[in-house]
Amino acid sequence: MKFEEPLIFERSQPGRRGFSLHADDWDVPRLDPADIWDDALVRSEKAELPEVSEPEVVRHYTRMSQWNYSIDTGFYPLGSCTMKYNPKINEGVARLPGFAGLHPYMPDTWCQGALELLYNLQGILTEVSGLPHCSLQPAAGAQGELAGLMCIRAFHESRGDTARKKIIVPESAHGTNPASAAFNGFDVIEVKCAEDGRLLPEAVAEVMDETVAGLMITNPSTMGLFETHIGDICQIVHEGGGKVYMDGANMNAILGKTRPGDFGVDVMHYNVHKTFSTPHGGGGPGAGPICVSDDLEPFLPVPRVAKNDDPDAAENERFYLSWEHPQSVGKLKAYWGNFLVYVRGYTYLSEYGHKLEEVTERAVLNANYLRVKLNDVLDVGFEGTCMHEVVFNDNTLQERGVETLDVAKRLIDYGFHPPTVYFPLNIHGALMVEPTETESRATLDAFATTVRTILDEAAENPELLKHAPHNAFRTRLDETRAARQPVLTYKQLVAAREQNDSEAGA
Ligand SMILES: Cc1ncc(COP(=O)(O)O)c(C=O)c1O
């Protein structure tokens, strides 16, 4: 049996230390906390911290890091999440002292380089989106949605058009879309997609009226499909007096190929962490900058990064934060937005900006490669070419007596992170794979071969899958309990163990 390493609190021995610095050997004054802080702030009892040696601390944290799966350790095909490899040069640039050491209260005149980077980034984002104005304030995709919808509402209110209280959201939208609309005080009108998974202009025309503020559409959608009727749909919304919001989180499927502004979109957000390769997880740290049309420009959040075009301007006054926008919806994030995420995104764009089309082609090719490689054993949700991600249904799994979750869990035994499961909701037992542009053909082949192996196993011995994963640090979890009663501290762990023991004994 494998030796199970004790957790750090179990290693604790009174008097053990992780350092051997003797204050007496150095001229270090011994300070009594009571001499420094107010009595009320000084704890009366010793903290219950583990007393451990340095190797024990190092082993504890290194081992915990190895329990995690990450894009740096393997293929991470989560659909809708774009877990692509983040080049390490991004980290190197973000750590340059001139960026990492900036204080947010420094005057503009002291941070010209940082402001120039943000200004240039705004320029790239407007160019790629085809929408001429940009705000870097939002700190996540969902906050970009909030900001964009606030701009739409402010636009209507500025014209006295206050009856527009609804946002149309197709069923193919990402979950944050209806949530952002509702959070903004709009009523959500959900519209169905056609048989082929796409939104039809007729469906929008049917609900479009003078109470509708706009349409919110994820394009390409969370079904991995490009909305081929988007031009007509935008026209219908505009003719009805509304604005079109595009969730641009899936831009890596269209970068450099087409521009939302050109097909009629009024406002969109990017997910910098998805599209331009910065760390993504747990809702951030991210950035969700928005780009808007001329109509919506006055309402953009502040501050914006601006350039002083006066040829006589001093060297240290060329770039500045611009606050003078009286119709702005206001400030959404502390200081400048998530600055170091933008440094990483800008680094990525500096490296790949001249070949964004190639990024797109590889993202789409990789998804279609897996679609074709697996289509004889897994049915797709919607026939035909997909964009950045491919969604399978569970038809062939049911025949084998297993479920989507069983396949996902068995993939862990083979060293792969599971794809997204049971989303989107309108595809039964959805298994959604987004390979991203950063994976090699060899990795995709290995993944496809493994899925086939797992399906063979399912046909022979479905029970093997039902209890997977077998080789992971934790075997099959009660997912509801794990989500509702997470065990996050050592004390909770001890209590949970005691409860398990008493349940087992009962
Ligand atoms: C299509 C889509 N829209 C919106 C979001 C929300 O973005 P964030 O997690 O940055 O709030 C995501 C997240 O990955 C997404 O995939």
What does it look like?
- Its EC number is 1.4.4.2.
- Residues 46-307 form the Glycine cleavage system P-protein N-terminal domain.
- The chain folds into 3 domains: 8-67, no CATH class; 90-354, Type I PLP-dependent aspartate aminotransferase-like (Major domain) (Aspartate Aminotransferase, domain 2); 356-482, Aspartate Aminotransferase, domain 1, CATH 3.90.1150.10.
- Helices cover 38% and strands 10% of the residues.
- It has 506 residues and is α/β, with parallel strands linked by helices.
- The protein starts with 7 loop residues before the first helix and ends with a helix.
- The mean pLDDT is 93.
- α7 crosses α8.
- It is globular and about 75 Å long.
- The protein has helices at 8-11, 33-36, 54-67, 88-94, 97-100, 112-129, 141-158, 176-183, 201-207, 230-239, 272-275, 339-352, 356-374, 395-399, 404-413, 441-460, 462-466, 479-484, 490-505; strands at 133-135, 166-170, 187-191, 212-218, 243-248, 267-270, 290-292, 304-307, 319-322, 390-392, 420-421, 431-433.
- It has 19 helices and 12 strands.
- Strands 1-7-6-5-4-2-3 form a 7-stranded mixed sheet, sandwiched between helices. Strands 10-12-11 form a 3-stranded antiparallel sheet, with helices on one face. A two-stranded antiparallel ribbon has the order 8-9.
